[in-house]
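Quick start: read one record
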Amino acid sequence: MASSKGILYSSLTLIGPDRKGIIARFTQLFFQLGANIEGLEEQVARGRFSMTVLASWDKKKVNPEAARAVLLREAEAVHMEATLRFETPGEPKMAILVTKEPHILEGLLAATGLGKTKGKKTKKTLPCRPVVVIGNRPDLEPLAKKAGLPFHLVDYKDRAKAEAEIRRLLDSYGAQFLVLARFMKILSPDFVWRWKNKIINIHPSLLPAFPGANAYRQAFEKGVKVFGVTAHFATPQLDEGPILAQEAATVGIGEPLSEIVRKGQLLETKCLLAGVKLFLTRKLDIYWGRVHSAE
């Protein structure tokens, strides 16, 4: 959420067993602490409750650490796992998750002024600061290190353990949003909910067409004449999150799959950067599964 003078924003995420009265209990607590609730979303799936509360506070009256202590103590009392994030001054901190394809990471580094062209640093065009690169393979560690960023390899043999380690790393680096730079692992619903509307993914199709794996091949085999890519928020439902940006290209007569992939990868970087920039520079409202500008 965009900053306003004199206002401090926070987001609280609760995850735990479903029980009556949780929403009322926490909305009342926010009121007692002097916060104004800007937005609330909750869901229940298989007896597991999840809720995200966006709140605004008067900077002159709130003590963030005191408010944190009260809210986390209440969450513990009702056996809820809680994550509370207060907005911090300065540029938003971005974490990047990768697998092995370099083009998206290269584009993000260039757009944040950490890339190099002919020995000179690239011009910064994204108002954010990368703080860490996390990968499930070691392929892109040299690229991250060259840009001066820490790289952490996470073993994905056990997804629960891997996600716990990623959460620990994100907290330790103070990350405020995540970019999936062709990260070829599916994040669990619990992980995604903790970062609701703060995980930006690039998918190689014009969603909602061709979700899931091998999207370029899906488009090729269907004989489409126009294909493209989509930058969207990640949600528990794979490739169904609110769309931030899309880019498209035409398929030439007799064009092979390899050429579609080549053209698509060029679009991926452009589209993802547009999506991240929109997320960073405009106040957005997200409802009914769609992204709306609040300006």
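Helices lie at 22-32, 64-77, 103-111, 141-146, 159-173, 189-194, 215-222, 257-281.
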